[in-house]
Design a protein that fits this description.
- By secondary structure, this protein is mainly β.
- The protein has a single domain, classed as Lipocalin.
- The chain has helices spanning 2-15, 42-45, and strands at 50-56, 64-73, 76-83, 86-89, 91-96, 99-107, 110-119, 122-129, 132-140.
- It has a 9-stranded antiparallel beta sheet.
- A hairpin with a 2-residue loop joins β7 (110-119) and β8 (122-129).
Amino acid sequence: MQRFLIVVIALSMSFGCATSKKTASAEPAAMEKPAEMKETDTAMTHPAVGEWDYIIRDLPDGDTKGTLSIKNEGGKYMGTIQSDQGNIQLKNLVIENKELKNATFEAQGYSIAMKGTFEGDAFTGKISAAGYDFPMTAMRQK
């Protein structure tokens, strides 16, 4: 039970005050589209690439919202998840077809995993930490 509470506190601190509001400082220069990429490039039209407004449900402190950003450079996926801590870099990001097979990030000393499926402008998945799962959904920003 104590481990569950620690995980919940870590997740709440990581996502608790997240917002989907964009500010100039909310996105680092690394997230800008490189000049050589065009909107018609396969990397830009992949179902996962883009900005997503997410919500993580069933956290003990309530649902939390934020922005998930995914890009593809040279066939390699990269991403960040916005939280009150700033932008957290996603690691081990594996996307095959429409499936997010793996993405991990660190929050409050815990490794958190994310998995799910992209379908059109919607994402359905979960985040997992220390054996606990929390449902996550997202909609592509227009």
